[in-house]
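DATA SHEET
Item: assembly model
Revision: 1
Owner: S.N.
Input lines:
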Amino acid sequence: MKVHYYPGCTLKDKTKALDLSTREAMALLGIELVEPEGWTCCGAEYPLTEEKIGTLAAPIRVLRQVRDEGGDVVVTTCSFCYAVLKRANGAVRNDPLKRKRFNAYLRDDIKIDRWTKAKTTGFDEYKGEVEVLHLLEFLRDRVGFPVLKSKLGRDLSGLAVAPYYGCRLLRPKEELAMDEPDNPKIFEDFLTAIGCQAVDYPFKQECCGSYLSVSLPDAATEASYRVLRSAKMAGAAAVAVTCPLCFYNMDKRQDKIKEAYLDFPGIPVVFFTQVMAWALGVDKALLGLGEHAVPAEAVFQDIPAAEVRP
Amino acid sequence: MRVKLKSGQAAKKFIERVEELSGENVYACYQCGRCSAGCPVASEMDLLPNQIIRLVQLGLQDEVVGSKTLFLCASCFTCQSRCPKGIDMARVMEAVRHLLDPKGKDAFGPAEVSPELAQELPQQVLVSIFRKFAK
């Protein structure tokens, strides 16, 4: 199976581990990932007012490129990219005025041929033909969790992982429609499918503080602490995240959390794709564990597989 | 909290602009307070989300735009998902931020990130915080 994959800016630099483990895992599932040519930043934030909507041009361009390459689905792993691309796509689909405005604006983009460098212009109207899916959604709806389960190469039944949704995967429900915002289960189902124990805890869909870690570090420290402590108290050996910013707030800044809250013992934070790649049988050296500030080696302990993949 | 009500065109205009920008009906709010109850950064705020929307209903622009709450909202949409009246509070916050003086100082601009910090931050956080808090 071939599918378009939008990595986003952070996965190419600060959190290569998320990108690498996604690629390794998908290769073992027999899924070829294709990056849309010339993709740009998605804009990170979906504009929330009816004016100043110019930042939607970037995600719509990416989606149009996917369509022009013949793709009908684009998969992302970063929660921010997912929310922006999916909401931008929804705006083009459901709001005729926005569709008209953006197509009028983007029609005169210049196409540069990759080989001949010849410049042409004129794009077909983008009507929201592409489907934006998060990797979790893609695995649930297009691959199927039972199929994923049948391809496992390692037994992780002793590993208790706390799924952390964060803010951008679930809300607003009307536009993202991935799962119930206050009682989600897609991440738990995913962890169960790859053979882990999914830990249930009350803070799984609370915010980690998001970008406030830059402007008001103490607020983000407190918000992340609440999530991590809750996961730890529920018996998790690690917290699995989907978002590079959650990873920064909860892993890279975990020393700050420990300084502020002396009762906090610390807990490794991993990407969901790292756990998936490990369960499928990917070598430990390919998981990008060097990027973690909190050592996560202990999470990936090689227990001989009950049945080894042929 | 005690506020002094004002009447007149300015207050009316402010309410209309917030509704126009956000696309939300601020008068739908009946002050149940679920937005504030679920807000992860409520402890840091001078005005809680439900107080912000009440002040918008009353047209008290100065009180609203002077609040530091506007720059504490992380747009996590917890309030949006819990509002029984379907108001997206994050949109109301963003609408008020857009009504700030366009020539004024950035609440949080590039100058406030040191080169060392910028080196370690993931790119997405820089893009999103400047999109939210800088003009």
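QC remark: Chain B has a mean pLDDT of 93.
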